[in-house]
Hints:
By secondary structure, the protein is α/β, with parallel strands linked by helices. Helix content is about 35%, strand content about 15%.
Amino acid sequence: MRIDLHAHSTASDGTDTPAELVLGAAAAGLDVVALTDHDTVGGYGEALAALPAGLTLVTGAELSCRLDGIGVHMLAYLFDPQEPELARERELVRDDRTPRARTMVDKLRALGVDVTWEQVARIAGEGSVGRPHVATALVELGVVPTVSDAFTPDWLADGGRAYAEKHELDPFDAIRLVKAAGGVTVFAHPAAVKRGRCVPESAIAELAAAGLDGIEVDHMDHDADTRARLRGLAADLGLLTTGSSDYHGSRKTCRLGEYTTDPEIYGEITRRATGAFPVPGAGGRER
């Protein structure tokens, strides 16, 4: 089995619609794909309607968290999307995304960048607006060559000149909320130093003690030494280890299935989940 447990659609900051994402996953030879848009479950319906035979969909979300001033992305799998407390927190985060993006636009304009809110809104479309949409605007304007190059202290990285804060969950609260909704939590790209500061291993140990299920090890932002170190840490802490593409369509260079999760790990994730269950495709209407 080929299993990719981290992918984004136009419901947040990917460039593929949810339907295009699942069809692309099948074309890439995947057996399982997880839809993990930022702080939203808005793509579920379209993805399920288009789900082709032979592909299983894992529903999830990537939750925006912050610990001691450091951004933490928490992958939540197979939770009940209707559970009210977790739904309320996701809504608070989403509601804060638009004013935050507007603030980043204002900061960029003050730095002499001719970006507009209308440009960023056009790029975001119906998705939940975020930094990647602002970064894409900088690429369109020729300010930076790639989206990744916008995530530096000069521009949009945490603490950068055009960075703006938004409402984010405490990761310990995120673990509690996801578990209460029957889901499973995995710390996304925990050592992606090119994105900015990362929490220390001692913090990961504290999250593990609080019920964190796993850490994402095989990821494009982790080099070989980092992956080896994270595997050792996971073994010491009794955490599951996953691998994922973190696919964003054309917004990033990673491809669906570029990194994958071991089937035994996937099986354990599904065993632990009680809020929702993987959905096998029976041939969606758009197939």
